[in-house]
Amino acid sequence: MRFINFIYKNIIKLGFISALIISFSTHAETILISNEGSDNITVIDLKTYEIIATIDSGNRPRDMHYVANSNSLLVAASEDDTINIIDMNTLKIIGNLETGDDPEIFDISPNGQTVVVSNEDDNEATVIDVKTGKIIRVIEDVGIEPEGVNFSPDGKLVFITSEGTNTVIIIDPIKGKIIEEILVGNRPRRGAFTKNGEEYWVTNELGGTVSVINTNSFEVIHTIKFVKKGIRSTEITPVDFAMSNDGNLAYITLGRSKHVAVVQTDTYKVIDYILAGSRVWGAAITSDDKTLIVTNGNSDDISIIDTKKRASIKSIAVGRTPHTVRIIE
Amino acid sequence: MKLFFLRVTIFFICLIPINILSAEENPVFNIGYYDLEKDIRYDIWGVHPVDIRSNANQLYKRPIAGAELGLKDIKPFQRMSKVKFNLVKKRIKNNEDSAEVIYKHILENNIKFILLDFPASELLKITNKIIELNITSINVSSKNNELRSSKCNKNLFHTIPSERMLSDSLAQYLSEKKWRKILVLTGPLEIDKLKSNSFIESAKQFGLKIIDNRNFVLGNDPRAREQNDLDFLTGSAKYDAVYIADTLKEFSYRVPFATHNPAIVIGSSGLIPRAWHWSYLRHGAPQVHGRFERMHKRRMTEEDWAAWVAMRAIAEAIVRFKDNENFSFNDAFINKEFKLDGSKGPVLNFRSWNRQLRQPIMLSTENWVTSIAPLSSFVHRENNLDTIGMDNKTSKCAN
Predict the structure, then answer these.
(1) Given an 8 Å threshold on Cβ–Cβ distance, is B77 in contact with A145?
(2) Domains of chain B
């Protein structure tokens, strides 16, 4: 019995040691997936595509952002009404940011000092000081069910998509004021700035389109439509973006249609559709633009896409309902 | 006395700038909401005997609650719609002529759009009377098939699904599961018979076999045991499922797990087809439920949803189409570009031939949405949502 105990204890010790080794290796290049159904974050090696760790997060983890200078990961834990701060050295939650109710999508200001989060249940956006973790102010009436949040590249404005009001609302996060409201398509989910900052693209999930907004005039200058033989228009439900780092292409996940659209940013032309998994939504691209990674919300896996071949080369089973993907390089 | 006049003058002077300010505001858009003071559908139909005694919140299920949430939800549209939405409620006494009262009320209160919460017979009277006013209306509660198949009115739209849409949804599910032999139990009310007939037609369309249609009564009389005792009522027959049409619900509550043969129960009990159920977790539905429950302290019913989405339809039509030449709701609603978000998944719009809102149906138990119709294996040449309900080939309203 003693002997068994001895072995048992040592196995536990071994477990700890291997966990330490894993934690050191997370400095390496990794893919991070938030699984909103299983309340954890899957950490995958970007080179070998092996799962190297699973981090317990708060309840219903959704949007995530990596903060390089502190090697930490911010994760919106929607059901806990907080943003977890996860230390990527120890893979443990080391603190939380106040967020107000039901945080879903958030963004960090370019100077790293402020976080703005959408509160889907309260029709509000909350501005948070990263240093203190406290709420600076709450901006009310940002439309029903606000979702997408993006700081403008100069950090002065925040663009918020309002799913229930079919608009993009532009706020000044310092003054806490709504500056402009722009009508887009139905159920705008997420937004992304083009690399040159001149345009803000918005996915309209129910409209099945992408609205392109000029960031100077605040006007919709183009609407991108998606047509693929064999897919009904009602199946085309755009959600997330990955903008290529060279500025030439936008990869747009099309939800129920199981495809990712490849769009030229200068001509707005859809040049290809790449098959991914069921309800493909979250997207991220590597800094060399060679690999696109998307989460498939309905099949509990992610697809690794070779952007040159424009084809999925691997799928990896992760946690339940994978939501957001981020890449640390 | 002088002081009094001074006060009055000051009072009126104070009012002036307020008036100037309000004149600059967007014009008010009045939405009329009409229902009956005493409506049997909200009195006793479907209320559990315990709830009758215990919980007042459970009893008050008028869909006006959905319209009230709808009003709150479309207020943010005002920045875009350039009109100020206002809900004007009018409850009609049962001894009044509802058509006459509504006709007058519309004219006297500058009502621009109306929501109607009435049984089918009243609805017909009202819409026939006000047709000359050319005002668009939405039916938020009557599921009557005739309103969508033969007695259509060009100004009357429906956000609540028809009985046929609900029964088609069940039939699709049974067909997919290959539970094809169905025993039908029909209640004593006229509306129960309409429900059963609708299901029997759906069964025919989706290749199910009705092995018998039996009438039940609520009671304990041993002389009527063939009609009130479940062992007799569901005995001496082979079936996969028991369909029950029971508007009062008191009988149907006891049918699941009590049939003579092991079989699923569907219809008014067991697996129930609904436009909306509070247990649905996807497509933004929990956000809508959450807002509704915080506002009204009860679950959101399918009629609440129908009234809520009707308010959204009004705002959506104005925001998207107000700049069109000769704007009218009738045209906007059937415009190909009209897209309504009902937080049920796909984009919703109205069938041009019978003004019915296309929509998925939730096949739900008391606390879970088991499946959503149309099921993926049922495909329509134009819109898969048209595999449920009367499409332009089967509705006589299509010309």
Answers:
(1) no
(2) 28-161+302-359 (3.40.50.2300), 164-274 (3.40.50.2300)
